[in-house]
Amino acid sequence: MAKDKGTSKTNVAARAEQKALASTCKVCGNKSELVMRVPSVGKRHMARLCCEKAGKA
Ligand SMILES: [Zn+2]
Q1: CA 57 to centroid of ligand 1, rounded, Å
Q2: Cα 33 to averaged position of ligand 1 atoms, centre (Å)
Q3: 45 - beta bridge partners?
Q4: pTM over 0.90
Q5: Distance between Cα 40 and ligand 1 center (Å)
Q6: How far, in Å, is the centroid of ligand 1 from the Cα of 39?
Q7: What is the mean pLDDT of each run of 10 residues along the chain (57 residues)?
Q8: Which of 16, 25, 18, 20 is nearest to 47 (CA)?
């Protein structure tokens, strides 16, 4: 059987899918955009720009 071709194609597709899942925000479902916010007062923290855009911040 076409073991090599089939396997590599499947792997590429699976990898692309995993990558897409990893870069998708679990909160808003959009492409995750995390930034480090360093306010003049208070602790620095990670902010989700994707959620802010989606109005779920
Ligand atoms: Zn989000």
Answers
A1: 8
A2: 7
A3: 37
A4: no
A5: 24
A6: 20
A7: 67 83 85 91 92 80
A8: 25
The rounded Å distance from CA 38 to ligand 1 centre is 19
DSSP string covering 1-57: --HHHHHHHHHHHHHHHHHHHHTB-TTTSSB--EEEE--SSS--EEEEHHHHHHT--
Cα of 10 to ligand 1 centre, how many Å? Answer: 29
C-alpha pair distances (Å), 24 with each of 6, 35, 42, 48? 27, 15, 28, 11
Which tokens is 49 given?
């720009």
**Contact indicator for 50, 33 with CB cutoff of 8 Å:** yes
The pair of three-digit structure tokens given for residue 15, joined into one six-digit string: 């990898």
